[in-house]
């Protein structure tokens, strides 16, 4: 009887998942249809919002251009390197502040103060310090991406039940064993949520850096097409950036479900 109930629950859950997927697809189709109809009917100026069909053609044409792979590679490289460095930096500082309370009391106010500064104000400084190449954009991506990992690491490690730590101490576990076998595993689901947010922030950081000063990258193309009033191509670049951000986010979400299997899920 228990197996029958479990099978029924799984079937119901799968059916609900398909309903939500179909609903999301339906909403997406409705948005695209509205995007196509509004400019064609004159409700929105086509210069401001080109029809979706025109943007799709511009996207296909842009991807066929010989210069496009180079610009895509530059931005992708900035995003990935910035994301990796930002994640490692946030993880390391977060662990240090969570494990050593004295370090947290000394450094945390400065970390929060730094985060409160709008990051775009650093972009001209990074250009001046590191030049117009990829380094300044990578630094910008790191600065924006590391904070969610830092905060989630601290919150996750500080939320470990004290009873679990006491149990490990009663079993003569060393502080290092307690950290790796209890604290870190307990915090990992929360940390991974910060890592997912960090990827989308790394995309923002790289593009902001390219906006301020660059001669290559998708941000450079977006600025160029805006100045030329080629809004269809500007939207095409936006679609590409959204695809990169969403693909990275969902890839990390898949890794979360695959490897952090002990997380409680709704």
From TrEMBL:
Compartments where located: Cell membrane
The UniProt keywords, alphabetically, are: Cell membrane, Membrane, Transmembrane, Transmembrane helix, Transport
Domain of life assignment: Bacteria
Q: Name one GO cellular component term.
A: plasma membrane
Annotated membrane topology is: Multi-pass membrane protein
InterPro entries for the chain? MetI-like, MetI-like_sf
Query: Where mainly located?
Result: membrane
Task: Using the record's annotation, list all stretches that form the ABC transmembrane type-1 domain.
Answer: 72-252
Q: Which GO terms of type biological process are on file?
A: transmembrane transport
Which regions span the lipid bilayer? 18-35, 79-100, 107-132, 138-157, 178-208, 234-255
For this chain, the family text in UniProt reads: Belongs to the binding-protein-dependent transport system permease family.
PANTHER family recorded: ABC TRANSPORTER PERMEASE PROTEIN HI_0355-RELATED, ALKANE SULFONATE ABC TRANSPORTER-RELATED, MEMBRANE SUBUNIT
How is this protein named in the record?
ABC transporter permease
């Amino acid at each position: 009887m228990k197996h029958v109930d479990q099978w029924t629950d799984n079937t119901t859950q799968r059916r609900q998942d398909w309903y939500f997927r179909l609903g999301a697809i339906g909403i997406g189709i409705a948005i695209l249809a509205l995007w196509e109809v509004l400019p064609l009917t004159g409700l929105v100026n086509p210069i401001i919002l080109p029809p979706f069909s025109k943007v799709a053609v511009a996207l296909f044409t842009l991807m066929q251009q010989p210069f496009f792979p180079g610009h895509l590679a530059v931005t992708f490289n900035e995003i990935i390197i910035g994301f990796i460095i930002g994640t490692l930096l946030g993880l390391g500082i977060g662990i240090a502040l969570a494990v050593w309370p004295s370090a947290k009391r000394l450094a945390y106010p400065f970390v929060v103060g730094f985060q409160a500064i709008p990051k775009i104000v650093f972009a001209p400084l990074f250009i001046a310090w590191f030049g117009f190449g990829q380094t300044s954009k990578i630094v910008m991506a790191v600065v924006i991406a590391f904070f969610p990992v830092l905060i989630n690491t601290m919150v996750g490690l500080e939320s470990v039940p004290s009873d679990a730590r006491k149990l490990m101490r009663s079993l003569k576990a060393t502080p290092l064993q307690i950290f790796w076998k209890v604290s870190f595993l307990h915090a990992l689901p929360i940390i991974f949520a910060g890592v997912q947010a960090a990827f989308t922030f790394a995309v923002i950081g790289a593009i902001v850096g390219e906006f301020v000063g660059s001669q290559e990258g998708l941000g450079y193309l977006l600025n160029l097409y805006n100045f030329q009033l080629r809004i269809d191509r500007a939207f095409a670049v936006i679609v590409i950036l959204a695809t990169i951000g969403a693909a990275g986010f969902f890839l990390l979400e898949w890794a979360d479900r695959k490897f952090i299997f002990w997380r409680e899920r709704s």
